[in-house]
Structure formats: structure tokens, C-alpha cells
Amino acid sequence: MALLLSPASLVWVILMLATCISTWWLPKDAIPAEAAVAFILLIAAIKVRLVLNHFMELARAPLQWRLPFEAWVVVSTAVILGVYLQTAANSGAQVSQGREPPAMTPAVERSTESR
Amino acid sequence: MASISLQTTRRLPGEQGVWVFIAADMAMFGLLFVSFMLERSKNVELFNQSQLALNDNYGGINTLILLTSSWFVALAVQATKAERIRLVPRLLFLAMLCGAAFGIVKVVEYTEKLSTGISMLTNDFYMFYFVLTGIHFLHVIAGTVVLAVLWNKARNAGYSRANMMGLETGASYWHMVDLLWIMIFPLLYLMR
Q1: What is the per-residue burial (b if ≥16 Cβ within 10 Å, else e) of B43-53?
Q2: Other CB atoms within 10 A of residue A7 CB
Q3: Which positions in chain B touch A12 (Cβ < 8 Å)?
Q4: Does residue B170 contact residue B51 with C-beta atoms inside 8 Å?
Q5: What is chain B written as a DSSP string?
Q6: How many whole angstroms separate alpha carbon B182 and alpha carbon B7?
Q7: Nearest residue on chain A to B177, judged by CA atoms?
Q8: In this complex, do B118 and A108 lie within 8 Å of one another by their Cβ atoms?
Q9: Nearest C-alpha of chain B: how many angstroms from A37?
Q10: pLDDT value at residue A109
Q11: Who among A6, A72, A79 is closest to B78 (CB)?
Q12: B160 — phi, psi (to 5°)?
């Protein structure tokens, strides 16, 4: 029916595909962890914007409402990605200087599911 | 073909008050995300190691479930605008089923963790895991109740193109629940 062919349905298909890519394809060991995580976070940001602008109709809302939410996406993604990359750089530096990374608490029983 | 709404002025869907709430809620979660990242930076090995016990499939499937529920809710709003009133309760009911499905997966997941001796007291990673997903789960439960209220009114033809403020208000809240999980999932499950 006409309703199913609406823009919301196209947005849903994109969201579902993006989720499958992020969850079951990108985490594979084919590309470096930092690159995979960066892509995953950027994809998440795009998904949030799709929900905000198309499901929540912010694209047609007054700008003084739309802008703070767009800013939330930009700021939270930038901070998360920034801290992540900084942390990865620091861990790499520690290893190359021969310093041990912080000790772990007693071993955690691994899930029987394969990653 | 269904009539199309020609929107010439900008508007927020639903009551403005819910948008204030949405903004505050997202700000709070944003702070939790940053807090998680800062703690992680002090304990990378611990966080990465602990994360291995999480099941990406549960998290991924729950993401797909919530995205689909949001789709049903968005369609319900569009159906109301198109005056296809009989579709509205059916779409809202499907969204409710998705909310219930999310809950079932969550309970299975939590039970698995607890039965292997992992709780929020195990270490900092798991504290964040249980707190972030737990607070979000409470939002899902509340949102499913909201959907039930919307569904009940829709069943009695309570919404129409001229009277849909409550529907759009509830819909906005539910979409927020969806978008929060879109951020929470990669943060906890996929970050290595």
C-alpha cells in the first residue's frame, strides 16, 4: 500500500542495513580496530540524525529546536570518538615504551558465543 | 493515493513539554556516555576484556527491534494524517510487540550475565553496562506503557488528522528511546 512506500520506510531500510553493517560486518578483524570503531561511531551518529530528522520530524521543526539536537549528535560523537582515539594512542604508546597496561581484575568467564 | 499534508510552517510534533523532557534526557545520557569513555580511558584493558562477555547478537537484534518499532510508530502517525484510521491501532500494537520483544531479549541477556556471576558490582565496566542498559530499559518499559495508552485510544478511533497531539507526543518519546539505544549499543558492545 501507499503508506509502506513512504519516506519513513526508506529511512527504516537504511537504518536496518546500517545496523547490520556495524554489528556483524565492521567488527570483523579485516580492518584495524580503531578504523572499525570510528566507522561504527560515525554510522551511529548518522542513524541518530535519521531518527531525529525523519522519524521525529525535526527536519521540519523550528530551527531553534532542531539545532540543539543536531549539536548533541555532533558534540557527543566528537567527544566519544576523540576520547576513544586518544585512549588508543596512549595504550599504543604504553606498549611501545615497554610499560604494562593496567592490571585487570580476576579473569571474567567468557561468553560461549563466538564473536 | 493518500492525501499529503502540505506543511508550509515549521512545527514540533506533539506537546512542547515532551521535547523539553527529551532534551533533558538526552543531555543526561550524553553525560553518562562521556563518563563511560573517561573511565574506559583509565582502564582500557579491563574494559576491553570485560566487554568480551557481552553478546553482540543480543545487542544487535535489540537495535533492529527498536528501529522497527519506531518505523511502526512513524507509519501510525502518517496513517493518522492520511485519515487511514483503521491502520493506526494495528501499527501501534505492532510497535508494542516490539517493545515486549526487546524486554524479553533484555531479560534473557541479564539472566545470562547474572548466572555466570557477572553483576554491576563485578567491575567498573559492568557497572556502566548494567546502569546504562538498565536506565534505558526502564525507558523502554515506560515507553511501551505509553504505546499501550496510544493504542487503546486509537482502537476507539480516538485519533484523527485534526486530533493527534497525544499520538505525536507519545511517538516523539518512543523515538527518543530508540535513538538512545542506537548510541548505547556500539558504546558498550562494539567499542574495542
Answers
A1: bbebbbbbbeb
A2: 10
A3: 67-68, 70-71, 74
A4: no
A5: -PPPP---S---SS-HHHHHHHHHHHHHHHHHHHHHHHHHHH-HHHHHHHHTTS-HHHHHHHHHHHHHHHHHHHHHHHHHHTT-TTHHHHHHHHHHHHHHHHHHHHHHHHHHHHHTT--TTS-HHHHHHHHHHHHHHHHHHHHHHHHHHHHHHHHTT--BTTB-HHHHHHHHHHHHHHHHHHHHHIIIII--
A6: 29
A7: A51
A8: yes
A9: 6
A10: 47
A11: A6
A12: -150, 175
Q: How far apart are CA A112 and CA A53, in angstroms?
A: 39
Q: Among candidates A83, A18, A25, A67, which has minimal Cα distance to A45?
A: A18
**Residue pLDDT, tens place only, B58-117:** 999 999 999 999 999 999 999 999 999 999 999 999 999 999 999 999 999 999 999 999
Q: Do B34 and A76 touch (CB under 8 A)?
A: yes
Nearest CA of chain B to the CA of A96: how many Å? 15
Q: Widest CA span of chain A, in angstroms?
A: 64
Per residue in B32-62, pLDDT tens?
A: 999 999 999 999 999 999 999 999 999 999 9
Return d(Cα A115, Cα A106) in angstroms, integer: 21
In this complex, the residue of A4, A75, A104 whose CB is nearest that of residue B45 is: A104
Extract the C-alpha cell encoding A25. 560486518
To the nearest whole Å, the CA of A9 is away from the closest chain B CA by 7
Rounded to two decimals, the pTM is 0.91
At residue A110, does pLDDT exceed 70? no
CB contact (8 A) between residue A84 and residue B175: no
Under a CB-based contact definition with an 8 Å cutoff, are residues B40 and A79 in contact? no
Query: What is the distance between the alpha carbons of residues A110 and B128, in angstroms, rounded to a whole number?
Result: 18
**CA gap A99, A1 in Å, rounded:** 63
Cβ-Cβ pairs closer than 8 A, A with B, add up to 171
| Residue appearing with cell numbers 582500557 | B44
CB–CB of B12 and A19 under 8 A?
no
Q: What is the ipTM of this complex?
A: 0.94
